[in-house]
Specification:
Oligomer: single chain
Mean pLDDT: 83
Radius of gyration: 20 Å
Number of helices: 10
Amino acid sequence: MALANVAWILASAGKRVLVADWDLEAPGLHRFFSPFVKVDDVAQARGVIDLVREYEDQVRRETDRSDCWVEQLAQVADYAFPIDWKFDGGGSLYVLSAGRQNGAYASTLGSLDWDTFYDRLGGGIFLDALRDDMRRNYDYTLIDSRTGFSDVADICTQHLPDVLVDCFTLSDQGIDGAARVARAVATLSKKDGPKRKIRILPVAMRVDQGEKEKADAGGCSRCAASPACPLG
Protein backbone atom coordinates (compact mmCIF):
# COMPACT_ATOMS: atom_id res chain seq x y z
CA MET A 1 0.00 0.00 0.00
CA ALA A 2 2.81 2.40 0.84
CA LEU A 3 4.54 1.69 -2.46
CA ALA A 4 1.33 2.24 -4.44
CA ASN A 5 0.67 5.55 -2.68
CA VAL A 6 4.20 6.83 -3.25
CA ALA A 7 4.01 5.84 -6.92
CA TRP A 8 0.74 7.78 -7.34
CA ILE A 9 2.20 10.86 -5.64
CA LEU A 10 5.28 10.81 -7.89
CA ALA A 11 3.17 10.38 -11.04
CA SER A 12 0.95 13.26 -9.89
CA ALA A 13 4.10 15.38 -9.66
CA GLY A 14 4.75 14.84 -13.36
CA LYS A 15 7.15 11.90 -13.09
CA ARG A 16 7.27 8.80 -15.26
CA VAL A 17 6.91 5.96 -12.74
CA LEU A 18 7.12 2.17 -12.94
CA VAL A 19 5.97 -0.17 -10.18
CA ALA A 20 7.19 -3.77 -10.35
CA ASP A 21 5.43 -6.61 -8.52
CA TRP A 22 8.36 -8.84 -7.52
CA ASP A 23 6.42 -10.59 -4.75
CA LEU A 24 6.09 -13.58 -7.04
CA GLU A 25 4.54 -15.95 -4.50
CA ALA A 26 1.76 -13.56 -3.53
CA PRO A 27 1.28 -11.07 -6.38
CA GLY A 28 -1.38 -8.42 -6.11
CA LEU A 29 0.18 -4.97 -6.33
CA HIS A 30 -2.16 -4.08 -9.21
CA ARG A 31 -5.18 -4.35 -6.88
CA PHE A 32 -4.21 -1.09 -5.18
CA PHE A 33 -4.79 0.72 -8.49
CA SER A 34 -8.33 -0.52 -8.99
CA PRO A 35 -10.50 0.70 -10.74
CA PHE A 36 -7.84 2.25 -12.98
CA VAL A 37 -6.58 -1.17 -14.13
CA LYS A 38 -8.59 -3.52 -16.30
CA VAL A 39 -8.79 -7.09 -15.03
CA ASP A 40 -8.11 -8.47 -18.51
CA ASP A 41 -4.95 -6.35 -18.78
CA VAL A 42 -3.52 -7.99 -15.67
CA ALA A 43 -4.59 -11.51 -16.56
CA GLN A 44 -2.99 -11.37 -20.00
CA ALA A 45 0.00 -9.12 -19.29
CA ARG A 46 3.43 -10.68 -19.33
CA GLY A 47 5.51 -9.82 -16.30
CA VAL A 48 8.57 -10.61 -14.22
CA ILE A 49 8.33 -14.39 -14.62
CA ASP A 50 7.90 -14.08 -18.38
CA LEU A 51 10.95 -11.81 -18.60
CA VAL A 52 13.07 -14.36 -16.77
CA ARG A 53 11.76 -17.40 -18.65
CA GLU A 54 12.20 -15.81 -22.07
CA TYR A 55 15.80 -14.96 -21.17
CA GLU A 56 16.41 -18.55 -20.04
CA ASP A 57 14.88 -19.94 -23.23
CA GLN A 58 17.05 -17.69 -25.36
CA VAL A 59 20.23 -18.69 -23.52
CA ARG A 60 19.49 -22.39 -24.00
CA ARG A 61 18.99 -22.04 -27.75
CA GLU A 62 21.97 -22.73 -29.95
CA THR A 63 21.55 -19.84 -32.33
CA ASP A 64 23.38 -16.77 -33.53
CA ARG A 65 22.50 -13.69 -31.53
CA SER A 66 23.20 -10.01 -31.96
CA ASP A 67 25.67 -8.28 -29.67
CA CYS A 68 22.86 -6.51 -27.82
CA TRP A 69 20.47 -9.45 -27.47
CA VAL A 70 20.41 -9.26 -23.66
CA GLU A 71 19.45 -5.59 -23.72
CA GLN A 72 16.71 -6.34 -26.25
CA LEU A 73 15.20 -9.00 -23.97
CA ALA A 74 15.37 -6.66 -20.96
CA GLN A 75 13.08 -3.97 -22.39
CA VAL A 76 10.49 -3.44 -19.67
CA ALA A 77 8.20 -1.37 -21.90
CA ASP A 78 7.29 -4.56 -23.79
CA TYR A 79 5.76 -5.97 -20.58
CA ALA A 80 4.49 -3.05 -18.49
CA PHE A 81 0.97 -1.66 -18.92
CA PRO A 82 -0.24 1.85 -18.02
CA ILE A 83 -2.65 2.96 -15.32
CA ASP A 84 -5.79 4.42 -16.91
CA TRP A 85 -5.54 7.90 -15.40
CA LYS A 86 -4.43 11.26 -16.77
CA PHE A 87 -1.91 12.75 -14.35
CA ASP A 88 -1.15 16.47 -14.21
CA GLY A 89 2.16 17.67 -15.58
CA GLY A 90 2.57 14.81 -18.02
CA GLY A 91 3.14 12.19 -15.32
CA SER A 92 2.50 8.51 -15.99
CA LEU A 93 2.32 5.29 -14.03
CA TYR A 94 3.08 1.82 -15.38
CA VAL A 95 2.75 -1.61 -13.78
CA LEU A 96 5.07 -4.56 -14.33
CA SER A 97 3.09 -7.51 -13.00
CA ALA A 98 4.53 -10.72 -11.57
CA GLY A 99 3.35 -12.57 -14.67
CA ARG A 100 0.25 -13.80 -16.45
CA GLN A 101 -2.40 -14.42 -13.80
CA ASN A 102 -3.81 -17.64 -15.23
CA GLY A 103 -4.02 -21.31 -14.36
CA ALA A 104 -0.42 -21.93 -15.36
CA TYR A 105 1.06 -19.25 -13.08
CA ALA A 106 1.79 -21.52 -10.11
CA SER A 107 3.48 -24.21 -12.22
CA THR A 108 5.53 -21.60 -14.09
CA LEU A 109 6.71 -20.09 -10.81
CA GLY A 110 7.51 -23.52 -9.38
CA SER A 111 9.69 -24.40 -12.35
CA LEU A 112 12.03 -21.44 -11.80
CA ASP A 113 15.44 -22.40 -10.41
CA TRP A 114 17.24 -19.25 -9.30
CA ASP A 115 20.55 -21.05 -8.72
CA THR A 116 20.51 -22.25 -12.33
CA PHE A 117 19.43 -18.79 -13.49
CA TYR A 118 22.43 -17.14 -11.81
CA ASP A 119 25.15 -19.78 -11.95
CA ARG A 120 24.59 -21.58 -15.26
CA LEU A 121 22.66 -19.07 -17.36
CA GLY A 122 24.38 -15.83 -16.40
CA GLY A 123 21.23 -14.29 -14.97
CA GLY A 124 23.14 -11.51 -13.24
CA ILE A 125 23.97 -9.97 -16.62
CA PHE A 126 20.28 -9.97 -17.53
CA LEU A 127 19.28 -8.31 -14.25
CA ASP A 128 21.95 -5.65 -14.82
CA ALA A 129 20.45 -4.96 -18.26
CA LEU A 130 16.97 -4.84 -16.73
CA ARG A 131 18.09 -2.31 -14.13
CA ASP A 132 19.73 -0.15 -16.79
CA ASP A 133 16.56 -0.23 -18.91
CA MET A 134 14.46 0.90 -15.95
CA ARG A 135 16.83 3.78 -15.30
CA ARG A 136 16.71 4.94 -18.91
CA ASN A 137 12.95 4.86 -19.34
CA TYR A 138 11.51 5.87 -15.96
CA ASP A 139 12.18 8.64 -13.49
CA TYR A 140 11.40 6.28 -10.63
CA THR A 141 11.06 2.50 -10.41
CA LEU A 142 9.50 1.14 -7.24
CA ILE A 143 9.91 -2.59 -6.68
CA ASP A 144 7.65 -4.51 -4.33
CA SER A 145 9.78 -7.24 -2.75
CA ARG A 146 9.03 -10.46 -0.94
CA THR A 147 9.78 -10.11 2.78
CA GLY A 148 12.44 -12.15 4.54
CA PHE A 149 15.45 -13.93 3.07
CA SER A 150 15.21 -15.79 -0.22
CA ASP A 151 16.68 -15.76 -3.71
CA VAL A 152 13.78 -13.61 -4.95
CA ALA A 153 14.07 -11.17 -2.05
CA ASP A 154 17.84 -10.86 -2.59
CA ILE A 155 17.24 -9.76 -6.18
CA CYS A 156 15.08 -6.90 -4.91
CA THR A 157 17.23 -5.91 -1.94
CA GLN A 158 20.74 -6.46 -3.30
CA HIS A 159 20.89 -6.72 -7.08
CA LEU A 160 18.40 -4.19 -8.44
CA PRO A 161 18.02 -1.20 -6.11
CA ASP A 162 19.94 2.03 -5.76
CA VAL A 163 17.91 2.78 -2.62
CA LEU A 164 16.48 0.11 -0.32
CA VAL A 165 13.46 1.15 1.76
CA ASP A 166 13.70 -1.30 4.67
CA CYS A 167 10.20 -1.38 6.15
CA PHE A 168 9.43 -2.91 9.53
CA THR A 169 6.68 -3.14 12.11
CA LEU A 170 7.25 -2.02 15.70
CA SER A 171 7.78 -5.49 17.11
CA ASP A 172 10.92 -7.35 18.13
CA GLN A 173 10.52 -9.72 15.18
CA GLY A 174 9.95 -6.92 12.70
CA ILE A 175 12.87 -4.81 13.92
CA ASP A 176 15.30 -7.74 14.09
CA GLY A 177 14.33 -8.92 10.60
CA ALA A 178 14.80 -5.48 9.08
CA ALA A 179 18.16 -5.12 10.83
CA ARG A 180 19.39 -8.43 9.39
CA VAL A 181 18.41 -7.36 5.87
CA ALA A 182 20.14 -4.00 6.31
CA ARG A 183 23.34 -5.64 7.57
CA ALA A 184 23.39 -8.08 4.65
CA VAL A 185 22.96 -5.28 2.11
CA ALA A 186 25.52 -3.04 3.82
CA THR A 187 28.07 -5.88 3.81
CA LEU A 188 27.48 -6.48 0.11
CA SER A 189 27.89 -2.77 -0.67
CA LYS A 190 31.26 -2.71 1.08
CA LYS A 191 32.46 -5.70 -0.94
CA ASP A 192 31.40 -4.14 -4.23
CA GLY A 193 32.97 -0.79 -3.38
CA PRO A 194 32.01 2.60 -4.87
CA LYS A 195 30.53 1.08 -8.03
CA ARG A 196 27.59 -0.45 -6.11
CA LYS A 197 26.59 1.60 -3.10
CA ILE A 198 23.03 0.93 -1.96
CA ARG A 199 21.46 3.57 0.26
CA ILE A 200 19.35 2.02 3.06
CA LEU A 201 16.33 3.86 4.48
CA PRO A 202 14.74 2.16 7.51
CA VAL A 203 11.04 3.05 7.72
CA ALA A 204 8.71 2.10 10.56
CA MET A 205 5.28 1.13 9.26
CA ARG A 206 1.82 1.65 10.72
CA VAL A 207 1.04 0.77 14.32
CA ASP A 208 -1.97 -1.51 14.79
CA GLN A 209 -4.59 -0.31 17.25
CA GLY A 210 -3.74 -3.20 19.55
CA GLU A 211 -0.15 -1.92 19.79
CA LYS A 212 -1.01 1.72 20.56
CA GLU A 213 -0.18 1.40 24.25
CA LYS A 214 3.29 0.08 23.39
CA ALA A 215 3.88 2.97 20.98
CA ASP A 216 2.79 5.52 23.60
CA ALA A 217 4.97 3.88 26.23
CA GLY A 218 7.97 4.09 23.89
CA GLY A 219 7.64 7.84 23.63
CA CYS A 220 9.91 9.94 21.45
CA SER A 221 13.68 10.25 21.79
CA ARG A 222 13.50 13.88 20.64
CA CYS A 223 11.16 14.80 23.48
CA ALA A 224 12.77 12.92 26.37
CA ALA A 225 10.23 10.08 26.23
CA SER A 226 7.15 12.26 25.97
CA PRO A 227 4.42 10.58 23.86
CA ALA A 228 2.99 13.96 22.80
CA CYS A 229 5.82 14.83 20.44
CA PRO A 230 5.45 18.29 18.82
CA LEU A 231 7.45 16.99 15.86
CA GLY A 232 4.95 14.20 15.19
